[in-house]
Amino acid sequence: MVLKSWLDVPEDHDFSIENLPFGIFSTADNVTPRPGIAIGRFIVDLSALVETEAFSMYCTCQFPYSVLKESALNSFAALGRETVNAVRMFVKYLLVEMTPIMRDNKELRQKCIIDTAAVMVEMHLPMKIGDFSDFLNSRTHAKNTHSTSSTPVNMFNPPRAFTGRASSLVVSGTPIVRPLGHLIDSSGKAYVGPSQQMDVEMEFAFFIGEGIKRFERVSIEEAEKHIFGVVLLNDWSTRDVQAPEDHPFAAFNAKSFASTISPWVVSIDALEAYRTKAQPQEPSDLLPYLTDKKELGTFDISIHMEWRLSPEEEVFATATSNLTNAYWSFAQMLTHHAFGGCEMRTGDLLGTGTITGEANSGINQLSGRAYTEWNTGNPDACGKQEISACRLDQGPPCYACRLYARECIISERPPRKRQKSTSEAGRAAASSATAHDTGVARPPHTDVPRSSNWTQGAQAAVSANNDVDLAVFSPQSNGSSQQMSPTHGGGSVTSQVSVESGRPTTRQAVVGREHDVLTESLDAWPTKTTFLLGDTGESDPYLLRHFSSEYLDSSVDDIAKATPRHMLRASDPDVMHSQGKPLVVLIADHSLYDRGEPRLDQHVLDQAADEVSQMVSDETGVRLVKLFFRYIYPYFPILSKTRLLYPLAELPARLKTLPLSLKAAIYASALAFFTYDDVLATTIVHSPPSSQRLYRIAWVAVTHEVHTPHLSTLQSCLLLLQRVNDDRYVMDTVFRWSLLGWTVALAQSFGLSTDCQDWTGLPEWEKRLRRRLWWATFVMDKWAFMSAGLTSHIHDDNYDVAPLTAADFIYSDETDPSRQPQHGGGPEGIEPPLSHFYHLTRLTAILSDIQTAFFTVAASKRTERDFRLSIDLAKPIRRRLKEWKTAFDSYLDTRNLPSHQSNSTATRSRSSGLDGDASLGLSYLVTNIILFRALLRPLESNLPSSSSSSSSSEAGRDAVRTGARTCCVEAVAFVESLRRNVWDAFWHSWSRAGFAMLSSMMIRLLITSTDAGEVDDVNALIRRWRWALRTGGGSAGNVLMSLALLRLDRSLVTRGIHESDEE
């Protein structure tokens, strides 16, 4: 699934949301160079972003934010690869289409987003470059350059590089002046004049991030951790100046005037999806310190060079090559450079050297193409020197042949490439320049990342009779010339399902390689159970990875009946080289746990299954499942439509194989809506199946399955937790909290707390389901324990599952979330991409932060008497709640729901069909009430405050009470506006407690009030609330509100208030 941004970024743009390169820029209205991140034609101003509350509130990475306000990226890059990627991923989170933080905040967008189509932008060197080294890295280039008999036998043993001048490095777009040189004419006489043999080589280069101290060296396994990111490098040369300098030494002035690099730095993590195998190396070249055991040691990235001549606008397609043509990998170059004790400092630049391929089209310099593509092959002078006759003002003979008085075999210029049309030129984004007599070619002003390549091709221009260079840098898949953006992330480009040996196999075309990947469910084997191994258990995943495979072969009868399966991430080259901790899943046969107790006898389970079959016929079961997906699934999507509901013709057969616990739980949950099925409303209305009995059977089956659980066991537990207590006047028993402990333990055992988005070999439907199941468990844990006044099982440090996106709600072969059917039982339509459950998880995350800030044992001790601390902690939470409400109201608006009261949350409901969004509106109000509970504690404490003065405390007390009372007013208006189709819809199980908590807050405000006017206002509000609870919703509403009414009446009677509503 390709992620999209809420910004207007073309799908084929190389500055995609998966790329997000770093650079230094300035604008006409703010000339201070500062860090930014590129996406499409836009730039995210990092220096502005770090000053916003969005950064401090939502960015979990801890580092000195001041580094993102400097005029170079050195301090930021020195923090290390992990921090760099964390910032990139945070910005990605802000920019992805389903994140409202910046999308819905116009002020934040105006402050942090630069539209280069509207603002003049200048790019600067991304880093302060201390040292510059350039390697020899291509066999073909070495052969072409050193074809004389004096050439060493092996140019790569040891690796070779030369030290360049850092002062010669300039950013793309900088005008290049044709240099003067010490030249030799054809008679051997020296003279001074402008170079007539300017050449440019096309290379990659990488910046050092975290430095390496002198004499410390670095192992090849750790080398990439010290790489900040990759840029393009154009190494300029004057070959006529170089020719006499080369013997007996090397180029001096010929290479000291200019080297251009692209202004945008692509982080090494953004390239992970393009890893591939490096070219074979001679064993004699690989001493132990250079031996890289990674199977995927380089990156499959194509590079393309074009020259455009002005004013003719003729385009020369000069070269196309690939990083895979490099003999040494980035890691090997850095390891060798530091091996002798050289200190590598942040900002040092290492060039790959010319990346020349074996084909003519792969010669990545002008002079190399001149003698290769148009040479007949005679070993003449122009075939032995790296010069370009096609660049001479005068025709043949070329400079070398004139210099050495030899016959020249070059007789014509290279063929010219047809000028591209507007559409074609847009793809190549070739820049042009105008010739100047002064010898300077000036490119047009660059106010946008000009090329469509995603590190931006070099745009430095040189007037070699109007010659301008442009290198286009893009990944390439399987040798195709079609450019591909990192938005195709994960390496997967296409997939075609096949079946081999009974196992589903996906043929994946991965950037740089193609191989078979088994897409095999972790829950596919009815007689096997799956556990993700932790680091501290009796089974060591770091040991088991030596014995694990990437899939489970069921045909092998393992002697231990337990098979470790290694789950590879998209960035993992192989089992032994995981980018993170090994993800080893133990797949164990059920028979291993036959003696686990307590358990049920099989005949008890058989009897329960028969009872379910007698209560619910096959036809009734199919209809109940459809009701479940229509009225419950949109608000609690813990099942897979792909695996259960569709295709509908196969649903009856699937129900027969559905585990007993889940089947009973689905039936019991859906029975509440059977009157909304025309057939069931007439066939079972007089004697419907007992939902209570079905819930009991589900629980019985769970107690047996928990020894060898499957995802269905967890799904059953979640549905049991959503069950509303039949006793209207009693809160749930302790059993509910115990069952929740089981549920969280199951989710963690399955490894759901580890994000599976980048796992390979797992079906897409299962990835989506596992992520939804984790967030469903998270939601139930936080709300159940908050409503019970207990602590949570789940802590932020113990999971890394990213927030849900629209992609987590698609099903079958759909790739467009907008094509999914509408929920809520209304007419057919389009389901909003960000649905009820998405907003529920975001609200629950805020609730979790409230619990952490105020209601843990330690937090309560800190805040219960410290009003100032409580206020400071509450401010960002209040802002997040307002942002959430704005996003939720926008979601409701997309569903075209009429608004009955503009200032009330979730007062909108459907004119037809059932609408379950009201339970989320209630949850928002309850979350606010819980926060006000925390703020009222220090104000109502009988002990002296630990921080606030009496005057500030009094002002704070009035503000908090006013806020709490306002929330209660919203709650009353909310309940008064609800229609019958809302009361009969799905309500989350904590809603009963939510209504009761609102009652408690109103009574609390009443009995703690010291102002007669406030007492009258609260009394009036309570009367409205009481009447709304007694009359609203009919029988459905009574189930939800009876507990709240009881709490209210009991408190009023206790306080001696006996007024009736009629009075």
TrEMBL record:
Amino acids binding substrate: Q242, T354
Annotated residues for binding of Ca(2+): D134, E201, E203, D235
Bias (Polar residues): 449-466, 474-486, 493-508
E.C. designation(s): 3.7.1.2
Domain of life according to the entry: Eukaryota
Low complexity bias locations: 422-435
Keyword Hydrolase attached: yes
Record keywords, A-Z: Calcium, Hydrolase, Magnesium, Metal-binding, Nucleus, Phenylalanine catabolism, Tyrosine catabolism
A single GO BP: L-tyrosine catabolic process
Positions annotated as active site in the UniProt record: H141 (proton acceptor)
Binding site for Mg(2+): D235, K255, S259
All copies of domain Xylanolytic transcriptional activator regulatory, residue ranges: 736-809
Region Disordered: start-end pairs: 414-508
UniProt GO molecular function: DNA binding; fumarylacetoacetase activity; zinc ion binding
Presence of the UniProt keyword Metal-binding in the record: yes
InterPro entries reported for this sequence: Fumarylacetoacetase (IPR005959), Fumarylacetoacetase-like_C (IPR011234), Fumarylacetoacetase_C_sf (IPR036663), Fumarylacetoacetase_N (IPR015377), Fumarylacetoacetase_N_sf (IPR036462), XnlR_reg_dom (IPR007219)
Pathway: Amino-acid degradation; L-phenylalanine degradation; acetoacetate and fumarate from L-phenylalanine: step 6/6
Named cofactor requirement(s): Mg(2+); Ca(2+)
Family: Belongs to the FAH family.
Name assigned to this protein: fumarylacetoacetase
